[in-house]
Amino acid sequence: MNKYIIKTEKLCKTGRISNIDLCVPEGAVYGFLGPNGAGKTTTLKLILGLIRPDSGNTYYDGVLFTAQNRFTLLKETGSLIESPSYYGHLTGTENMEIVARMKGLDAFDVNDVLHEVRLYGQKDKKVSQYSLGMKQRLGLAMALLGRPRLLILDEPTNGLDPAGIQEIRELIRSLPSAMNMTVIVSSHMLSEIEQMANVVGIINNGEMVYQGFLADLDPQGNQLENVFLELTGRSESL
Amino acid sequence: MINFVTTLKCEFMKQRKKRNYLVLLAVLIFYAAYLIWTQNGQSFSYLHFWEATFYDLSLLNTLVLPTAIGVYASMITDLEHKGHTFKLLETLTTRRKLLTAKFIYGSIYITAFVLLQLLVVFVTGNGACGVPSIQDISRYTADTLLVSLILLLMHMELSWYFVNQAVTIIVGIAGSFMGFFLLFMQNHLLYLSNPWSLYAATGFILMDWNPDTRVIKYYHGEVAPHAHIAALIWLSVLVLTAIFLNHHSEEEQLHNRLFQNSHRKIAEPGRSIRFSRLPVEFLKLRRSPIWSAFLALPVISALLGTINYTANIDVLESKWYSLWSQHSLFLALLFMPLLIASFCSYQWHLEHTGTNWNMVMTATTPARLVIGKITTAMIFTTIAVLWIAVLYILSGLIIHIDVPIPPELPGWIICGIIGGIACCCVQTLLSILIRNFALPIGIAIMSSLSVFILANRIKWLIYLDPHTLLSLGLRANNPEMVINMGVFLLSCFLWSMMSIFISILYLRKTDITTH
């Protein structure tokens, strides 16, 4: 396996996750699966330094992630966590402009990215008037801005219609080859992950229960759904 | 559809754990402190003790309650905007019922507040001076309650229609300011032309100060004739507005029609994107006119100050110096700190909203964020202070003050700006620590008011409170006052540095929370 762009060592956050060893190979689409409340968002927030671990480390390209180098490492990372972040009283373009300016990027990219997520036609509307799907596209556009090497998407297809889901899925699938990106995408929608990811991690009750190639998960060719339910102990989700 | 009683019950359930009443409680504590303080120190003519107390109370109410009620109303209403609950609630009940329930909920606390205020008055009056007549008590209670409810309704409506809570809070601050300033005008029509002067206008005690004997006399009389009629007109206008504006159920349509027409212009598809050169924190302020208050309040202050100066020109003898206090006293002492507090609250409210922390903290560093926002607040404060100076010189020239402009003016301005910066830093810290929009503003109000009242007795207090450093630097209450420059600068420096340091450290060290 090639080198890991993200590697965590025994990441712990009391009451939420324990001993998470997440290994994301470069160029992969890493599907991060788990029932609701399993700790997916917590793990992703820890990786981004939005919250601090009680113990454990995160390595970006083998470099230890600390409070000091946090911003340098995050410059090459785009993310969409929980639901999209936006300033409702501003237009889509103005929101993009703010993110771009904070990241120190130029204007050219904003147009391209807005085209890519098909929001260009709506870019001059106030975001408070956007539909849920449009807000989600805006969040994706913000994450894609600056062509980061690593993209962290927390349930990116929330609120999108079937056509939108397919579109975004194709986009995510194309990113490793087209843009040299590595993508971590979390979801509880198994079919979606099955179609996008080549590596998966399955988390349940704050612990990693499986990590590896999707293809290795079940050589017998069982449905991912059955394997998933088996691994997560068919427990009631939160 | 649920009935009204259920809507009201739900209102009580919704507001649990919100501790909105703390705002009113803080005001009560302030009243108690003020009453104890004045009664211990002053040689009251005990004959007129209660008259003097009722007179003072009507002034205090004018000064404090418009802002306090604005903050309180905003706290009651804002939770619906924050949780986007209208889309759920409107499937269960009507907007009218909702607003009425909220108003009744608020009224109950306001009534309790007025009654407790009376209790505070009696307890601090400690029985030494007899008891006021039942007539006076009931009249004071009824009037205060009536005016408070009018203001509550007005602010409820403002915080209801304008999702941006800065609107209602700025109106509250401006109301306190206008109401208090108009008290010095002695013009009945001015009293009745705005709802904020009604506390004083409905008063029934008059004061007479004899400049020769320096004796203050209080006696019963009408402050402004027809004040109650004016109050009822205000009340009916507000009730009608509430009924009319909640007539339509299509919330979005109404909202669009009322407030968002102006945004149509912006949508011109196909325009190429060009970055503006403004700093990023300025970009976030586009289309929220909160900054305009930094220009508007000095204008109001200059107008009222100049009118007051010309009206009392025989008493105010120090020409430019007298005009300076007229222009800057209340503005710098109370309203600029409130404005700065509102501005900082608004800036950080943007980040506290939704999941914005996720985006901001991955895109930029805490240090850049804090410095960016403080710089923005500082720039507006500086503009406001310079604007005060410009208006001051203009007014002086217009009314032909025939001596040269004071040479100390540049010094006042520079010290004022330095003091204002300390205030910006401290409010930034408070707005980071406190996610609530109104609470940091409440703290600024209480802090500057307490010092305003207590400064006569404890001289060093004005150097200690970050909210009064601005007025101290401007020498707002006494242009000829000599300040201890070393202590002043040290205090500004320490407050600023400490606030910046803790703000950045806090953002670095704590886990971000969204929602």
Layout of helices and strands, plus pairs?
The complex is a heterodimer of chains A (238) and B (515).
Chain A: E1 4-13, E2 17-20, E3 23-25, E4 29-33, H1 40-47, E5 55-60, E6 63-64, H2 70-74, E7 77-80, H3 92-103, H4 107-116, H5 132-144, E8 150-154, H6 162-179, E9 182-187, H7 190-196, E10 199-204, E11 207-213, H8 214-217, H9 224-231
Parallel strand pairs in A: 4-9, 4-10, 7-8, 8-9
Antiparallel strand pairs in A: 1-2, 1-3, 1-5, 5-6, 10-11
Helix pairs in contact in A: 4-5
Chain B: H1 4-14, H2 21-41, H3 49-82, H4 86-89, H5 95-125, H6 134-161, H7 166-182, H8 188-192, H9 198-201, E1 205-210, E2 215-220, H10 227-245, H11 251-259, H12 280-283, H13 292-311, H14 320-352, H15 356-363, H16 366-398, H17 409-433, H18 438-454, H19 461-464, H20 469-474, H21 485-509
Antiparallel strand pairs in B: 1-2
Task: Report on the architecture of this protein.
The complex is a heterodimer of chains A (238) and B (515). With 238 residues, chain A is α/β, with parallel strands linked by helices. Chain A folds into 2 domains: 166 residues, 3-Layer(aba) Sandwich (Rossmann fold); 62 residues, no CATH class. The longest helix of chain A is centred in the last third of the chain and has 18 residues. Chain A is globular and about 50 Å long. The two termini of chain A are 35 Å apart. The model of chain A has no long low-confidence stretch (mean pLDDT 86). Chain B has 515 residues and is an all-alpha fold. Chain B folds into 2 domains: 242 residues, no CATH class; 230 residues, no CATH class. A two-stranded antiparallel sheet of chain B has the order 1-2. In chain B, helix 17 packs parallel to helix 21. Chain B starts with a helix and ends in a 6-residue tail after the last helix. Chains A and B meet through helix 2, helix 3 and helix 4 of A and helix 15 of B.
